[in-house]
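Here is this case:
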Amino acid sequence: MTTKFLLTSFDTWLPHQKSNSSDDLLAKISVDKSWPYSLTFLRQLPVDAERATNLAIAKINQLQPDTIICCGMAESRQKLTVESCACCDNNILKTAVNLADLIADLPTIKISNDAGKFVCEALYYAVLKHLADSQLSAKCIFVHVPILTAENADQILADFLLILNRLTIDN
């Protein structure tokens, strides 16, 4: 059985941003059509918590993916970071994925406990809550992507692909 992934990214939200690194990363991945798993992209979600959440949950309900990887840009970070949890109104939801195992021996990826208090965290929380409330078995993680540069783009892409592969093995 082929593992079905849903990968999401955001649009830009500030005037100085030419692109969103989360979407840049997914654009690079979407070029290759030879993946041993099924990838569905929900790119350039609006930077609006309610609209982004509604679009993502509708796609989850339609696709019924095995794994969801929500991606957002983290301009101030230098490495890929995988978010352990999301908060809303003092409620905390944690991913069911064992992140320590997921990134074991990958020194260029870090685990974060701060999803950003912005649309990224709102989306992550809403997706985790939807999965729990609907009793869906899909796994979900949120990955923050730093600005891609000529120096780091290849490493970040390679690291992200390792995460994809490890999540496939885990299914």
Remarks:
- The chain has a mean pLDDT of 93.
- DSSP finds five helices and eight strands in the chain.
- The first strand starts at residue 4 and ends at 10.
- Residues 33 and 117 are 34 Å apart (CA to CA).
